[in-house]
Records
---
Amino acid sequence: MNYIIHETATLGENVSIGYFSVIEEGVVIGDNVTIGNNVTIHAGTVIGSDVYISDNCVLGRWPRPAKASTVKVDPNLPPLKIGDGTTIGACVVLYRGSSFGKEGMIGDQASVREKCQIGDHVVIGRGVAVENQVEIGSYTKIQTNAYITAYTTIEERVFIAPTVTTTNDNFMGRTKERFKFVKGAHIKKGARVGGASILLPGVTIAEESFIAAGALIHRDTEPAKVYIGVPARVLRDVPDREKLDQQD
């Protein structure tokens, strides 16, 4: 046998396990799950049925911040939970304390930190970094190499284009005062954020806002408006035909 399964782990029917994979104590795995080569599933992780896990993934790891980090590890983090029908790409790292809804897709080399709540049918693209305490609503799509900072809220059916950057600290790591104000963006239902745009700390992107590629959002937006530029300004209204209630 070329893999290790702890005696307390529970596996459903028709589970396939690749070479050199490790399943630690208390792990629960549903039916019809495929686990690739060299995968580590840490203690207590719960994986639903019909899940596909590619090679070299690490699931359910504990956070381990630097000694100089201000982040404190919660010793009571619940196990990682992966919903039914989820596909996990190669070299993905998912931390303990987060949960994923059903039928999502996590691209190669993506990472999701602790205390994140991810809805159903969410796409997290290749190389996306999702920091701690982030909420992502169902049917949202986050594309390649986007950076979702800690304490960000993304509602349902949001589109985040490649290399979007969100921020949460106007003091950029200096002064103790900053801890009272650290906050990521709140991106509301149906908003679309274009490639390489930047969202400054604490901004609200209103429902159906359209943020053009390369825009810098430094203040709250209005619903269903198109924003362009650095700093961003209103260009026009979002056409009715593009709104969520007009889609099939």
---
Amino acid sequence: MQEVLLKPRMQFRISVEAENISPDKFANKTAGEIESIGIRMGNYKTTVGELFSVKVNGSGIPEDTKIEMEGDFSRVKRIGEKMTAGTILIKGDVDMHVGSGMSGGKITVSGNADSWAGKEMKGGELVIEGNASYYLGAGYRGESCGMRGGKITVMGNALDFLGEHMCGGEIVVKGNAGILPGLSNNGGKIVIEGNTSRPGSEMTKGMIIVNGTVEEMMPVFKPEGSEVVDGISYRKYTGDVILNGKGILYVKE
């Protein structure tokens, strides 16, 4: 088992591109080896050790590597990008693209996460204990698929366009979601425990469940009556009918 503790050496005023902070990159490395890993702050090339203090206990393969991050990471982007295994615990807020493209392992954010969290995620688990911003689990500009697998859980609220172009996996939001969740979906499952507006526009496959209020429905769904799912009665809709979509939208009665 390898445990790595990172703490910022300064308050970051410009963004840090931290895709190399990952169990895949840290596994079986000493503190000195981790400190020498490249990282970028704005357009300045630097190292992990110049920006963060590093402590290492033990050693292990990525599956047995845990990274704990203590301090202010609200200007640190791309943590855990494309990680395949291991654990990252971020004790506070985090900047954009956390868990982007990850395929395994688990990331927990104890605070809030900025936009594009879990972007194009393929597997693993991302837990955000605070709120998520825009494009949670979505695909980046021009991509036909966003999230493809894995699970994202947000204990608070999420803003607009969560799960855009989602093709697989599961997103659960315990609070409210902004407008157009599940936009252009082609698979996967979205559960919103609170309120939202205009879910499922242009979806062709997949499932959206809303346990709160839908403030505005898009006029592209066919009512299919009521259905009980896990003991809860929902109004069932299918669509987007304009695209001959087979997506399912459940709205709690």
---
Amino acid sequence: MYIKELWRYPVKSMAGEKLTGVSLGDLGFAGDRKVLVVGPSGRILTSRRYHKLLGLHGTLGEDGQPLIDGLPWNSEQALQLVQETTIPDAQLVAYEGPERFDILPLLVATDGAIEAFGHDARRLRPNIIVGGVEGLAERSWPGKCLRIAEALIGIQDLRGRCVMTTYDPDSLEQDPGVLKEIVRKFGGELALNCFVMRGGELRVGEAVELAAECERPEARGATP
């Protein structure tokens, strides 16, 4: 097995960027979900309700600061784009605490499961796609861990999927049948919620090894 793809999402709920390499720390990829879209009450606004956010692209600039469609995240132009796709009083906030993740800091998918899924892998919003995996083998991985060079990634459980999977990542056209298909074929769960046991540098093409049972995140004080 090997790393087939790496993805980072500098602005939560926006389209992400495909990487050739990335640093992995305690809270996932460096630069992942650094900026949130929030409402006036401080509630995080996501593409589950405001699907047009998926049409904006979050990237990191050369200085490490997030960009939205190439604009500095804290610029008036970027804010205007966000408000046009959500609500007029939405704001952009930089935050790097664990609460910015819906479940755990990493989502790992496999090429075998994506092939069985039969749709664009971007609908699943993975951080890591592991290649060389037979069929739905990932479904037996919870409780084990992945070794990638010096990094060690714990696998907690399968990810329950939501309405975000129904939107085409390019056209934003909705197909409710995609989520119905995930429920019918995969019990509503696809890809893996993962946590970092030991960080390191990840690169596309690096070997991935499935290892024995790992320590659970609850025992490490991680936020579920």
